[in-house]
Amino acid sequence: SRSGKGSIVDRLRVATLKIRANPGYQPQAIADVVLASRGNASITNLVALGKWLGGLGENERLLEVIPFDKARLDSTLMSLHLGALGALNRWQDIEPSLKSASSSLDPAHNHLLLAAVAFRQGRKPDAEQAFELAIRASAGDAQKLILVANQAERLGVVSAAVHANEIRAGIPGNSGSAA
């Protein structure tokens, strides 16, 4: 057994190289890094570990390392947690998490995620309403409005995409009446 020294970031780099050299080593590498991180679970380390696990497609493991109670502590942790739930198609678990943790996420992102959940659950009117709330929460922030517009367009909620783009560009409009 080793002394346990070395930062989580260093351990992740080494594990990534070992996996690249031998893909069959991935389960052991993950177990080793997760075990090593247990004594040093700062938010910074959890974010690094969560991003790494997510990048490997290890979403179940990510949820074990960043359960909801830890995710509530930081908006990046919450984003990683919610992203893993989405990757696992656990939409029914995302909405309650968002509603109980809305203070840890930016309001625009919170509404955007609620819109995606509603859409994926077949609740288009709820998705449209959540997109409108995301647009209002994004007012004055061109980058957020682009994000909202792109997500709305990707999901086929064209009226919301038009409205977000009109606001971003300063074009007076009827919130997508051409749709």
Describe the structure.
With 179 residues, this protein is mostly helical. It is 72% helix and 0% strand. It has eleven helices and no strands. It has helices at 8-21, 26-37, 43-55, 59-65, 68-71, 75-87, 91-100, 107-120, 124-138, 142-155, 158-169. Helix 10 runs antiparallel to helix 11. The longest helix has 15 residues, at 124-138. The chain starts with 7 loop residues before the first helix and ends in a 10-residue tail after the last helix.
List the helices and strands and how they pair.
Layout (H helix, E strand, L loop, with lengths): L7 H14 L4 H12 L5 H13 L3 H7 L2 H4 L3 H13 L3 H10 L6 H14 L3 H15 L3 H14 L2 H12 L10
Largest sheet: none
- Our estimate of the beta-strand percent is under 5%
Compute the number of strand runs. Answer: 0
First-last Cα distance: 63 Å
Offer a few descriptive terms.
179 residues, 11 helices, single chain, elongated, mainly alpha
Short characterization:
The chain is built from 11 helices and no strands.
